[in-house]
Design a protein that fits this description.
Elements (H helix, E strand, L loop, with lengths): L9 H64 L10 H5 L38 E5 L5 H12 L4 E2 L4 H5 L15 E3 L4 H5 L3 E6 L2 H14 L7 H33 L5 E5 H6 L1 H11 L6 H9 L19 H18 L14
Parallel strand pairs: 1-3, 1-4, 2-3, 4-5
Amino acid sequence: MVLTKPKVSDKSKTEVEGVNVGWTNQCAKAQPLGYRKIVHLVGLGFIMCFAYLASISIINQSGQIHLLLENAANGNLSYSSISPAQHSQAPNFPSIFRQPPITAPQQQNTTEWCQPLHFKAEPGPVVALASFPGSGNTWFRYLLQQASGIMTGSVFKNLNLLRNGFPGENIANGSVSVIKLHKTTIQRMEAFDKLILLVRDPLPAILAEFNRQAGGQVGYAPPWAFKENNGERWGRFVYKRGVSWEEMNLAWFSHFSPQNRLIVFYVDLKTQTEIQLRRVLTFLNIPVRDAMISCALARRQGLYHRPKRILHFEVFNSSMRQTLADHKRRVYSILGKPATFEKKPLNRT
């Protein structure tokens, strides 16, 4: 018996083939559609990524704009009379700190100087102007520049100061009269030949620094900042900075010999400005000229003076006052200054 393959009718074959052909056609049609979807999804991903990066850029730019507006409100947007070319032509003295140079915008400065500011004729000792933040370092530099005509330097890169009367900002070598800094490290102290230590009472110094951090160079902390979290934030700031104030002043004082250090108290600089300026100029071996001293006294106010503001509450409680008084007593006893204390409420910020 011979087995034969059953025959499939043409109709059945057509139906089967039709099903196969139809399924194949549907797959063929689906492939281009899926490819387009993939392309669309990839494109959408690129668009979302671009939008995210653009939003980050806008946020950064808005932050810079906010900073510019804040500086403008504080009156900090006037500029240095030293052009970028002049700033880049500082004498090629070795810098004690390696920092990239700053290019100052070529704008007109509104500060009137007793004489045009200049570098030292010859490099001299590298002199630190050390102080706890909020102790009047910027005002001291301003007075010294008026009385001497020589630029003061700094280890910082404050563009507002660079543009507004301090063309020696970010210069830290013997070409400037003094170099501003705050931090205390053995490495930094050993980089200097001499020291001017500017000391201010810890209460107003800490308050000034709190205002600066919250409100800018001549701004204020908002009243609610002192009461935030029931005053916890402000309290932590006071106690921590009180310890730093004592440690910083004693470290700098003890590191330099008596012949290489000069102590200037902020209160004396305010009440005996002429006497203190003459002391400083003599210590720096800068000629003392009566005409320059008189000119500096006539322009003693400066641009970075924070005007007084009266709050309707006491910012330092009794515990804060006692703690800071203890810090002050220990420091002033070593520095040879009688420790007097303000008894009336300190609500002027």
